[in-house]
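User: Please fill in residues for this 437-position structure.
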């Protein structure tokens, strides 16, 4: 007797922790936001760029800085099996955009205004608004040194908030000056912190000599009074840096943009200089930064290219959508124009021809499908039509098919009622519908 082999129980597969599926209707809200961004970018003459999700690890070590949290603790790195290269899932996109600009000599004929959308990856503790895979939308202006471009990017984000209906977002500004100015401040800051070494937490002590500026951004409540009294970088800025910042604020003032100057705002990457900014909110708890950016005039050189000025920002899509929800704005689900109700399987060729013509002139139509043993009752089909959110039901009954007609019934406005039209009259109905919209 042959022993019966009992198959092992198949383990249910789930998504990786912190890497989430985006399902309808939430996916519709993402698409809505992306469409708003595309229109906005076009108005400001920014063009789309798409870079690889995987880059060589040295790009981020050189670009972001070896002692940043991202490089030290958060990157997903792995070895290429073919050649042993160290590769990394991109934790942010600015370094990738600059690498692409260098590799393809994009600035040979002048500056470029670019924007991107896509997933980033950081190995963090997942929490609301902070995931291991998260989408970012960003804009980068490469090859422009003037503060008017810094202002342009901030005005663009401010316009986006108005476009999507967000009002409870605050703008914070600072200037990190130039490297020589930052070095003077660094010495003064280290000297100050050394005198209060016993008040520093473990993270601050670790950063004291490697990246002391980041200590100013601590969230530890026991260190707030200490960092408030620390030397301020703004006090070490020279005339040129101060003039750059003044030009920025004067443009924002002229456009009635409300902002706060925050001397403790430093950002998390080493590549920033001069202008840095954040848009924040109290609605998302500890994940209150929804968009941030600044100037990075030395990143091209850090990555092996000729010096070129640059400035940009990135916003977290997940956080913006959480903010949209908290503000009471509903998901933007696309409106379905019509649902086709079919009484006979043999009618499908005729029905498909009609609704295909409707789709070609811009209507969205959902086709009822058979279940193998027929199309189902009219009652069940009307129920599906109603649940689909369609504005109209297109009824293809025996009489309609015999007379090459369609009965149109409004599902949302009972005052409209229903009407039966010939195939030729459908064009007039579509035109009337589209003019009303």
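Assistant: Residues filled in for all 437 positions:
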């Amino acid at each position: 007797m042959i022993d019966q082999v009992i198959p092992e129980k198949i383990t249910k597969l789930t998504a990786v922790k912190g890497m989430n599926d985006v399902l309808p209707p939430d996916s519709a809200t993402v698409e809505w936001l992306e469409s708003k961004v595309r229109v906005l970018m076009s108005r400001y003459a920014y063009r789309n760029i798409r870079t690889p999700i995987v880059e060589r690890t040295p790009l981020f070590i050189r670009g972001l800085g070896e002692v940043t949290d991202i490089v030290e603790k958060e990157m997903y790195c792995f070895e290429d099996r073919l050649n042993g290269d160290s590769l990394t899932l991109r934790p942010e996109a600015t370094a990738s955009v600059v690498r692409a600009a260098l590799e393809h000599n994009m600035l040979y004929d002048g500056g470029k205004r670019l924007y991107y959308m896509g997933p980033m990856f950081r190995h963090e503790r997942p929490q609301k608004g902070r995931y291991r895979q998260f989408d970012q939308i960003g804009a980068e202006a490469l090859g422009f040194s003037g503060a008017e471009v810094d202002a342009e990017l901030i005005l663009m984000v401010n316009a986006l908030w108005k476009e999507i209906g967000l009002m409870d977002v605050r703008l914070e500004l600072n200037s990190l000056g130039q490297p020589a100015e930052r070095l003077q401040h660094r010495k003064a800051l280290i000297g100050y912190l050394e005198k209060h070494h016993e008040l520093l937490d473990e993270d601050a002590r670790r950063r004291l000599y490697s990246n002391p500026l980041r200590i100013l951004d601590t969230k530890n409540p026991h260190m707030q009074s200490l960092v408030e009294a620390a030397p301020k970088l703004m006090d070490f800025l020279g005339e040129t840096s101060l003039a750059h910042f003044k030009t920025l604020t004067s443009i924002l003032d002229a456009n009635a943009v409300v902002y706060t100057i925050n001397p403790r705002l430093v950002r998390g990457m080493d590549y920033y200089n001069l202008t840095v900014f954040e848009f924040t909110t109290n609605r998302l708890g500890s994940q209150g930064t929804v968009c941030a950016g600044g100037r990075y005039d030395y990143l091209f050189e850090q990555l092996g290219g000729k010096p070129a000025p640059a400035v940009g920002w990135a916003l977290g899509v997940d956080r913006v959508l959480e903010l949209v929800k908290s503000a009471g704005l509903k998901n933007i689900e696309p409106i379905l124009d019509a649902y086709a109700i079919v009484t006979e399987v043999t009618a499908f060729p005729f029905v498909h021809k009609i609704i295909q013509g409707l789709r070609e002139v811009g209507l969205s139509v959902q086709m009822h499908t058979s279940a193998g043993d027929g199309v189902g009752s009219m009652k069940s089909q009307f129920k599906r039509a109603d649940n689909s959110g369609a504005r109209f039901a297109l009824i293809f009954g025996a009489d309609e098919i015999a007379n090459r007609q369609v009965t149109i019934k409004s599902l949302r406005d009972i005052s409209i009622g229903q009407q039966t039209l010939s195939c030729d009259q459908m064009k007039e109905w579509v035109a009337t519908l589209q003019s009303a919209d």
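For context: The two ends are 74 Å apart (CA to CA).
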